[in-house]
Specification:
This protein is of the alpha+beta class and 406 residues long. It is built from 13 helices and twelve strands. Strands 4-5-10-7-9-8 form a six-stranded mixed barrel. It is elongated, with a radius of gyration of 34 Å.
């Protein structure tokens, strides 16, 4: 019996039991759709995190004071004063893998303009901070190195600060706002960056010369941090090693002494977050894959029922010359048709479900072609695997016993 006839027989058998065939496919449809949707959500989240970290600066390196133990008590890193301006200057002059660097200090408090006020944070930085963090000035200008040298009372504000303080539509540039009792003249407005992957508002900030924050707001001489940029993302590790060597030398740390500073990079953060999203994606896909397993078991169950119902038909075919392999192929083709058709419908449902999730819940999604192909391949293999045993059972029936079956 040729393959064309076997396909016709299989299609006719499925057409005679449309509802049962559809219900059998339903497990495969749900399984494939679930796998595609879950992988799309997982990959979308991963790409969203990577994009947001890239916006922060994928080659960014952050240096902070490390916690220390004194008198048996571990101090908070924020209380340490181990970073000095000399450390920053030496990093800039000696580290060949560092392209940009800025001191960082900050102070939180209440901002006031007219009758409006809002809590926010003033970050003391140098002009290089703009390139390191990939901020852009939308209106006005950024403060200059001369402003840093003179500890000028100037600042650049984010969009959230503008929305909270300048509620009557005033142009912020040129206006004077107060941070506590310190007046600051607004020289520029930053372009909006929105929320990052950790849910932090990147526009709720004020940037001012670090010397202004040090002397006029905090009355300190040490630095709370140093933010650097490696010459390229590929050389982030080398840049971190250079920075560590400079700081250990400056802080007179001996071999075996613990660092009194911590160095972190956005590359580390990216790897940590992407590994977490990868794990979640695998877990989601595994849960969705259970549906495929259930769908495959459904195919096996229905094929067993089909073999039992058509025992006399099998006996008749074998009595007129059909071989065992023909019967095996017939039932195997039926199982594959069920799984492949269910897989095609499942792919369409999965893609549509992913788009609906993106539109309704605003989850980032990314449908990778390999996830569609993988789901389709798995459901095809499931059809062959779960359809094989019932088909083999049918092919091994004794024709005489099959004809006698009631």
């Amino acid at each position: 019996m040729n393959v064309t006839n076997l396909f016709k027989i299989a299609l006719r058998a499925l057409a005679n039991n449309k509802l049962r065939g559809f219900l059998t496919m339903l497990g495969i449809i749900i399984g494939v759709a679930s796998v595609i949707t879950m992988l799309a959500i997982g990959q979308g989240s991963k790409r969203s995190i990577q994009a947001q970290i890239s916006e922060m600066g994928s080659n960014m390196i952050m240096v902070h004071p490390g916690a220390d133990r004194r008198g048996g008590v571990r101090l908070d890193a924020a209380d340490m004063e181990t970073l000095k301006l000399q450390d920053y200057n030496d990093i800039v002059s000696e580290c060949s893998y560092v392209s940009l660097a800025t001191p960082t200090v900050n102070s939180s408090g209440q901002l006031i303009f007219g009758a409006n006020n809002t809590p926010s944070t003033v970050y003391g930085v140098s002009p290089e901070y703009l390139d390191i963090r990939r901020y852009e000035v939308e209106d006005g200008d950024f403060f200059t190195e001369q402003d840093v040298l003179t500890s000028a009372k100037v600042c650049v504000v984010g969009k959230t600060v503008v929305d909270n303080l300048f509620t009557n539509g005033e142009n912020p540039v040129g206006q004077v706002i107060r941070f506590g009792k310190i007046p600051l003249r607004v020289v520029g407005v930053l372009r909006s960056k929105g929320y990052n992957s950790m849910g932090m508002d990147q526009d709720d900030l004020i940037l001012a010369p670090y010397t202004t924050v040090q002397k006029r707001m905090l009355a300190i001489t040490h630095l709370q941090g140093i933010t650097c940029a490696a010459v390229d993302e590929r050389f982030t590790d080398q840049a971190m090693e250079e920075i560590a060597e400079v700081l250990r030398r400056n802080h007179k740390l001996q071999r075996g002494d613990d660092d009194d500073f911590t160095i972190r990079s956005t590359q580390e953060l990216s790897e940590m977050l992407t590994s977490t999203t990868d794990l979640m994606t695998v877990l989601l896909a595994a849960v969705a894959g259970i549906s495929l397993l259930v769908g495959g078991i459904g195919i096996m169950n229905i094929m067993y029922v089909s073999v039992t119902e058509r025992t006399r038909e099998i006996g008749l075919r074998m009595s007129i010359g059909a071989k065992g392999r023909d019967i095996l192929a017939q039932f195997l083709i039926e199982a594959i048709l069920i799984s492949v058709t269910g897989g095609i419908i499942g792919v369409l449902v999965g893609v549509c479900a992913s788009l609906i999730v993106n539109a309704a819940a605003h989850f980032p999604i990314y449908i990778q072609p390999w996830s569609v192909l993988l789901s389709f391949a798995v459901c095809t293999v499931a059809g062959v695997f779960f359809g094989w045993y019932p088909a083999r059972k049918a092919s091994q029936l004794d024709p005489i016993e099959a004809l006698r079956y009631e």
